[in-house]
Amino acid sequence: MKKITKKILKKREKRLAKRLFKEKLEIWKEKIIIRDEYKCQKCKHVLIAGKRHVHHIIALQAVKRNYPELLEDINNGILLCGYCHKFSPSSPHQGGFAWCEWFKYTKKEQYEYLVSKLYEYRL
Q: In sequence order, what are the residues at sequence separation of 6 or more whose Cβ sits closer than 8 angstroms to the Cβ of residue 13?
């Protein structure tokens, strides 16, 4: 019989934490897909499974490090198609300024909510 050491227990805890994190993320994504009615919020195309990109408005790494309560907040996500998410000139990954302007004016309530959350953390 194998002896359970602290090292083994730590590995198990780490695996469990990773699995729980992934499960939370999947639930968060599903909520956003339903809220956005399965449509890309930029080009308004209806998206089939496998073509949906749920984008973190405040980056996942920043959320994990600095804003943990925004991890499961659906206001920190938006549904996009692959093109609008990664390749269009105003995508969040290509044109940061153009993306911010688009988001600020088309999703005003969501934008203001996130800005207020960031200010709360700053204080």
A: none
- Burial of 49 (C-beta count, 10 Å sphere; 0-12/13-18/19+): exposed
Separation of alpha carbons 99 and 104, rounded Å: 8
Q: What tens digit of pLDDT does each residue of 70-99 get?
A: 888 999 999 999 999 988 887 888 767 888
* 3 state SS of 76: helix
B/e letters for 59-71, b = 16+ CB within 10 Å, e = fewer, are: eeeebeeebeebb
**What is the 8-class DSSP label of residue 69?**
G
pTM greater than the 0.70 cutoff: yes
